[in-house]
Structure to design on (139 residues):
């Protein structure tokens, strides 16, 4: 899956999420709170947690999850190699299906990282999580 395809997946989902968020704002608010709580640095840093989430997205075959958590992992300074190794664990735990979906993650991390370097975006800003906090019903 190309970087453009990942971007398209997230773009396609945004209006669908917005429409559903209008109908169930408290559910989205709770999900956003859970997402922040689950990925905040503790004994595991945010990078590790995003790589775990990326791997789970691979196992579930969720393109939106792969795109979202690959982006968040890149924003937490994940390397292509780190993403590849996390996805390698999915092969052990989920077998062949993970080889299909797993190919998508490291490429996306690399593309986001390159784009951030080209634009001079500071690393590890947590901008994805900051944008999550600005969604209606999540403050």
């Amino acid at each position: 899956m190309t970087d453009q395809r990942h971007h398209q997946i997230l773009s396609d989902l945004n209006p669908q999420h917005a429409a559903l968020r209008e109908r169930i704002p408290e559910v989205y608010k709770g999900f956003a709170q859970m997402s922040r709580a689950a990925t905040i640095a503790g004994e595991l840093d945010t990078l590790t947690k995003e790589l775990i989430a990326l791997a789970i997205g691979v196992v579930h075959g969720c393109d939106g999850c792969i795109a979202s958590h690959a982006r968040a992992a890149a924003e937490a300074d994940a390397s292509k190699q780190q993403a590849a190794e996390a996805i390698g664990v999915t092969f052990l735990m989920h077998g062949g299906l993970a080889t299909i979906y797993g190919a998508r993650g490291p490429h996306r991390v690399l593309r986001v990282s390159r784009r951030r370097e080209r634009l001079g975006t500071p690393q590890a800003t947590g901008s994805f999580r900051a944008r999550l906090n600005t969604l209606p019903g999540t403050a």
About this structure: The two ends are 33 Å apart (CA to CA).
